[in-house]
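Severity: low
Component: inverse-folding endpoint
Summary: output formatting inconsistent between runs
Steps to reproduce: submit the following structure tokens with default settings.
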């Protein structure tokens, strides 16, 4: 951001957050809703502490080499929660906070993958927190303020609406083909989600490990819905806009206002099985369902938005879900090294291949820089 002179503004956290469990709303500030039962709080704290300790044992560059990697890769996050967290309320909260990052059911995600991603961001408290955490700030002008100047620098080298169909390697270089474009280069960097990379035809075939990895790391199901109001009325009611309700059609909400504070934008994030269920409704039923959830949480002022915009990332052709790819059980220990290992003249980027801030834009940028240095070094070109 500093390279392009893009300023940041803080995520609004000036009011209470809400956690809704079993129909009961808990208002709180910080990370834990202390008004829950002592039993649930004790389980929640113990679970977070155990995850923190496990994350400390993960080698960021080679998580599959962790001392307990095989043990953790044999079980899902859901299995771990079911055996370690006895309070159902605490278990539901942790499942949403931890597995929700991968927009999948906790039963779909390897415990080792979760620990790898959490460790790459400094641990679970930083990962799930807004204030002083991974969601602490936003770029003024959105991500467009960053990618537009990059696109300007690239000029004619940037070709839009040209999805790559095939990559062929030979002794001298690579031939990359799209529908109406063929590019010849010495090396190529592929920086798309793993499931999308698997849709490209490679000649010769990729290594067995890389090919199988791409078959085994899907994106999750996620819908993001921006509900627009004249002003962020929840702030006047002493709320920060952040709410969480495990298993509901509006799993999470956050205040998504720009740096000006108006209009009021409430972002609804629905993940995993709940997102798939919401996606099966028609558009009018989805809208009614989401608005009803907001009214239940934020009162009658939420009933009459001036705008409603939804994005189902699960059905996006060249995203294939989100927020990031996730590894089911057994994948990391069997195929993990293939996340970054080049296949001849093909180099791999993408946030899942980053050792630091895996799953964020930060990690995606780091992976691109790493892959670029890797490709240049292979050609004997210095930075």
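Observed output (run 2 of 3):
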């Amino acid at each position: 951001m500093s390279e392009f002179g893009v300023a940041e503004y803080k995520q609004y956290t000036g009011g209470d957050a809400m956690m809704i469990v079993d129909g009961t709303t808990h208002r709180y500030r910080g990370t834990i809703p202390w008004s829950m039962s002592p039993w649930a709080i004790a389980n929640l704290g113990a679970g977070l502490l155990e995850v923190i300790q496990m994350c400390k044992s993960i080698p960021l560059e080679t998580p599959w080499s962790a001392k307990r990697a095989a043990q953790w890769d044999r079980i899902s996050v859901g299995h771990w929660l079911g055996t370690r967290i006895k309070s159902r309320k605490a278990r539901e909260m942790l499942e949403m906070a931890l597995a929700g990052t991968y927009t999948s059911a906790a039963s779909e995600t390897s415990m080792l993958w979760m620990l790898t991603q959490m460790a790459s961001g400094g641990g679970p408290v930083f990962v799930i927190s807004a204030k002083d955490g991974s969601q602490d700030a936003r770029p003024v002008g959105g991500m467009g303020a960053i990618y537009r100047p990059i696109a300007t620098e690239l000029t004619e080298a940037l070709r839009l609406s040209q999805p790559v169909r095939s990559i062929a390697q030979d002794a001298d270089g690579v031939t990359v083909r799209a529908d109406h474009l063929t590019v010849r280069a010495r090396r190529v960097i592929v920086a798309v989600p793993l499931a999308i990379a698997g849709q490209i035809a490679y000649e010769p075939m990729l290594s067995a490990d890389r090919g199988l990895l791409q078959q085994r790391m899907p994106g999750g199901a996620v819908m993001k819905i921006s509900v627009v109001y004249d002003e962020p009325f929840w702030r006047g009611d002493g709320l920060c806009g952040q709410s969480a309700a495990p298993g509901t059609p509006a799993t999470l909400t956050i205040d998504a206002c720009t740096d000006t504070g108006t209009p009021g934008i409430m972002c609804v994030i629905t993940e995993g099985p709940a997102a798939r269920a919401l996606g099966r409704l028609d558009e009018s039923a989805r809208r009614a369902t989401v608005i009803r959830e907001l009214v239940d949480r934020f009162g009658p002022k939420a009933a009459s938005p001036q705008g409603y915009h939804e994005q189902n990332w699960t059905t996006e052709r060249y995203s294939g879900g989100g927020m990031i790819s996730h590894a089911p059980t057994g994948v990391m220990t069997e195929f993990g090294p293939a996340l970054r290992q080049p296949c001849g003249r093909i180099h791999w980027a993408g946030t899942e291949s980053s050792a630091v801030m895996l799953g964020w834009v930060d990690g995606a940028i780091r992976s691109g820089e790493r892959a670029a240095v890797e490709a240049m070094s292979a050609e004997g070109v210095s930075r």
